[in-house]
Specification:
With 642 residues, this protein is α/β, with parallel strands linked by helices. It folds into 5 domains: 21-113, Glutaredoxin; 116-219, 3-Layer(aba) Sandwich (Glutaredoxin); 238-447, NADH-ubiquinone oxidoreductase 51kDa subunit (Rossmann fold, 3-Layer(aba) Sandwich), CATH 3.40.50.11540; 451-544, Ubiquitin-like (UB roll), CATH 3.10.20; 547-641, de novo design (two linked rop proteins), CATH 1.20.1440.230. Helices cover 40% and strands 16% of the residues. Strands 2-1-3-4-5-7-6-8-9 form a 9-stranded mixed beta sheet, sandwiched between helices. The protein has a 5-stranded mixed beta sheet with strand order 17-16-20-18-19. Strands 12-11-10-13 form a 4-stranded parallel beta sheet, with helices on both faces. Helix 3 (38-51) packs across helix 4 (90-103). The longest helix has 18 residues, at 566-583.
């Protein structure tokens, strides 16, 4: 790791180095993994390795996004072949060392099949077959029976010593019946019947022929741009980031482009702010660059407060240098010499890793005076968020950094004109800055290859709730909501029927099942009465009451309101009381009209985005599920008549 300031040529030399050397074993030590027991897994791996005196590195890494399978261990052999194990514990970790590393065996019910599926066998012998019954909601899981049949057929063809059969934890395929994946080719078959097994073994396992009627040709539906390094590098090691092209975008910006060129590159990319509003990033930077001022500031908004959201936290914990690099680029573009990471104090690991990244960048000359020999100087600091949802709003965030009470201020003037300490300030969220880094490395035109219409690039979502496999995903803009929920995350848990999807957190809306083919763009979600938000996708099934959902989110907003303006403070409280009244079966039909009136008042008169968007969950549930509200009211009326 560089401990003295690097020149531009010394920085570039790191990009020619190979990625982190293998063989190795990586443990996903992000907050989700740690909460599930990843530290115990990490320790057990090290102890087992030392007891057997094996020469293999045990490393830390960030989140792979597969939250449903935490803790996660990733093993790479001497050829670079990767195997992902999920739902690990200390005992299973020992088996990774004793059986997998020493003997090449896999672990039953722990292996996660690759989404990067092979098209052919490449003329090489296969060593393993993963099997899984991907059907949901059935009384009987046929995976074990499927495994036995495949094993019997391998034995019949005398291939049982050459090819082993293992039950997979997850195949990345859902409602496709019996599925299998060959290793190392990753050729994957779906919809397999018992009658197909003999020819699979005879023609594929023995002869290396692909069965076109069974093969799954579609690869990973995700496109990892922001998450490109998450789960791939050691987030606490600068060298690990540099070996994957780290700070290449910064070098290009500082040494090959003017600030105006950087802003133009962002304009070409079409990147819009990923914090929720979707304001064009280049325009925000341009508006901040234009005013004349003795000082300007840039801020990374890491105050992620939506219930169930963990997108920004995962990026900060898993790829901190990418966010820092994006912040430095933004500072160069607008002419700022000081920047702040505003991260909520409830994210201690994110705070720790960002601070370490800042210290490492200082030591390497990537922060401080005359970065990479240029005329540009910049420094960054960390400020802890106050734990208030409203501090995610720009003016409240600024007040908090200044040491004042975190409450919104009227706009205009906007922070780009009068922000931190009255100076022009550009505020971008974590995901936006990580995308900036990739754009400056690969180019704005490259970024426009992803996405749809005015929504270019990709979007990171935290899929939670009643999803079968809750996880962090990154998909191209324009992908249908249904594809994300059903094809990537497996639909509703336990084979239940999806009722609705909530996007945008407390500020978003509920989207019913029949609207799930809607593409994910800023405009299309707004048309449905929701918003993109920072990236939460909450899955609900038929057991969920929409009145309760509206009541939950509104209750959250009431608790988090700063109380500064009457429409939010009083209107939110009145709305909540009306919802509680209806949910208790004591509502009247005219209450629904009152709810709509209060919502209209809050949306038009509240001071900040919290109050303006707090009615969204209420209005969207009323719009799409009014029958549930009327059922509560009707039941009460009938009870009075009887």
């Amino acid at each position: 790791m560089p401990t003295t300031p690097m020149t531009a040529n010394e920085l570039a030399a790191h990009w020619d180095e190979p990625p982190d050397p293998y063989p190795d074993i990586r443990v996903c030590l992000d907050t989700g993994g740690v909460a599930a027991g990843a530290r115990d897994v990490y320790q057990a791996l090290r102890e087992a390795r030392d007891e057997l005196n094996l020469d293999i590195d045990i490393k830390r890494t960030g989140s792979l996004g597969l939250s449903y399978a935490d803790p996660i261990v990733v093993s790479r052999d001497a050829t670079g072949q990767t195997t992902v194990f999920g739902a690990m514990d200390a005992d299973a970790a020992r088996l990774v060392i004793e059986d997998h590393v020493r003997n090449g065996s896999l672990l039953e019910d722990r292996v996660i099949a690759s989404r990067e599926r092979g098209a052919d066998f490449g003329g090489q012998p296969q060593s393993a077959i993963l099997v899984k019954d991907t059907s949901a909601g059935k009384d009987e899981d046929r995976t074990l029976h499927f495994q036995e049949l495949v094993q019997q057929e391998l034995t019949f063809h005398e291939l049982n010593e050459q090819i082993k059969v293992y039950r997979a934890l997850d195949m990345g395929l859902y409602e496709k019946g019996l599925c299998l994946q060959f290793l190392p080719s990753r050729v994957t078959y779906a919809g397999v019947s018992e009658e197909d097994i003999p020819r699979i073994i005879e023609e594929s396992a023995r002869s290396g022929q692909v069965l076109n009627d069974l093969i799954v040709t579609e690869g990973d539906l995700q496109e990892r741009i922001v998450l490109r390094n998450c789960g791939q590098i050691d987030p606490e090691d600068l060298d690990s980031y540099l070996r994957r092209g780290g700070y290449r975008g910064l070098r290009r910006a500082l040494l090959e482009m003017s600030p105006e060129d950087v802003i133009q590159e962002l304009k070409t990319s079409g990147l819009r702010g990923r914090g929720g509003a979707g304001f064009p990033t280049w325009q925000k930077w341009q508006l901040t660059r234009e005013p004349q001022a003795d000082r300007k500031f840039v801020i990374c908004n890491g105050d992620e407060g939506d219930p169930g959201a963990f997108m920004d936290r995962s990026i900060l914990e898993s790829d901190p240098h990418a966010v820092l690099e994006g912040l430095i680029i933004s500072a160069y573009a607008i002419g700022a010499e000081t920047g702040f990471f505003y991260i909520r104090a409830e994210y201690p690991l994110a705070v720790e890793r960002i601070q370490r990244a800042i210290d490492q960048a200082h030591a390497a000359g990537l922060l401080g005076k005359n970065i990479l020999g240029s005329n540009f100087s910049f420094d960054a600091k960390v400020r802890l968020g106050a734990g208030a949802f409203v501090c995610g709003e720009e003016t409240a965030l600024i007040a908090s950094i200044e040491g004042r009470r975190g409450s919104p201020e009227p706009r205009p003037p906007y922070p780009s004109i009068k922000g931190l300490w009255g100076k022009p300030t550009s505020i971008n969220n974590v995901e936006t800055l990580a995308a900036v880094t990739a754009i400056m490395d690969r180019g704005g035109a490259w970024y426009t290859e992803f996405g749809s219409g005015k929504s270019r690039g990709t979007k990171v979502f935290a899929v939670t709730g009643k999803a079968r496999n809750p996880q962090l995903v990154e998909v191209p803009m324009g992908m249908p909501i249904r594809t994300v929920i059903e094809d990537i995350c497996g639909g509703a848990d336990s084979g239940a029927r999806i009722k609705a999807v909530q996007t945008g957190g407390p500020s978003g809306g509920v989207i019913p099942r029949e609207k799930m083919n809607t593409p994910i763009t800023y405009e299309s979600l707004q048309e449905l009465g929701s918003i993109m938000g920072s990236g939460g996708l909450l899955v609900m099934d038929e057991s969920d009451s929409m009145v309760n959902v509206a009541k939950f989110y509104l209750g959250f907003c009431v608790d988090e309101s700063c109380g500064k303006c009457a429409p939010c403070r009083i209107g939110g409280f009145q709305l909540l009381k009306l919802l509680e009244k209806i949910d208790d079966g004591k509502g009247k039909s005219e209450d629904l009209d009152t709810i709509r009136d209060i919502c209209h008042c809050m949306r038009t008169a509240s001071l900040c985005g919290l109050g303006q968007t707090a009615p969204n969950p209420v209005l969207s549930t009323l719009n799409y599920f009014e029958d549930e509200y009327l059922a509560c009211v009707t039941a009460d009326a009938e009870g009075k008549q009887s």
